[in-house]
Amino acid sequence: MTGYEISGLAALYIFLLAAFTGYEVIARVPVILHTPLMSGSNFVHGVVLVGAMIALGRAETPLEQALGFVAVVLGAANAAGGYVVTERMLAMFKSGKKGDGK
Predict the structure, then answer these.
(1) What are the residue ranges spanned by the domains of the chain?
(2) pLDDT digits over 51-77, tens only?
(3) Which of 91, 49, 45 minimizes the C-alpha distance to 71?
(4) What are phi and psi of 7, to 5 degrees?
(5) Are 16 and 70 in contact (CB under 8 A)?
(6) Is 79 exposed, middle or buried (0-12, 13-18, 19+ CB in 10 A)?
(7) In angstroms, rounded to a whole number, what is the distance separating the alpha carbons of residues 69 and 77?
(8) Are the C-beta atoms of 27 and 74 separated by less than 8 Å?
(9) CA 49 to CA 8: how far, in whole Å?
C-alpha cells in the first residue's frame, strides 16, 4: 500500500474532469499551433507507453497481462503514429525547390 488509495468513483470523476478540461483547451487552439502541439503531445504518448510497460511488468493474472499487452501495443502505435503525422505536417512547410543554395 502506498497510502494513496482512490475509489473507483473518484477515479472516474478525475478522468471525466481531465477529459472535459482537455477538450475545452484543445478546442480553443488556433489551427497554426496544431503542429507544435502535436510534437509536444508525442512526449505525453511516450509517458503513457512507459506507464503501460510498468503496468504490464507488474501484472499477475492472465487478464492483467492481456490488458497490459494491449495497452503497450496501442501506446506504441499511438506514439509512433504521432511522430509520423508530425513529420508529414512539417514536410508540408518545406520548400519544393532543391539546390537553390539556401
Answers:
(1) 8-91
(2) 889 989 998 999 999 999 999 999 899
(3) 49
(4) -70, 165
(5) no
(6) buried
(7) 12
(8) no
(9) 23
The residue type of 12 is L
Residue the block writes with cell 477538450: 23
- The rounded distance, in Å, linking the Cα atoms of 75 and 52 is 7
How far out from the chain centre does Cα 50 lie? 11
Amino acid at site 57: G
Q: Which three cell numbers stand for residue 27?
A: 478546442
User: Per-residue pLDDT tens for 13-42?
Assistant: 988 999 998 888 877 877 777 666 766 777
Q: Which residue type does 13 have?
A: Y
78 Cβ contact list (under 8 Å, min separation 6)? 45, 48, 49
Q: Which residue has the cell 509520423?
A: 84
* pLDDT band with cut points at 50, 70 and 90 for residue 90: confident
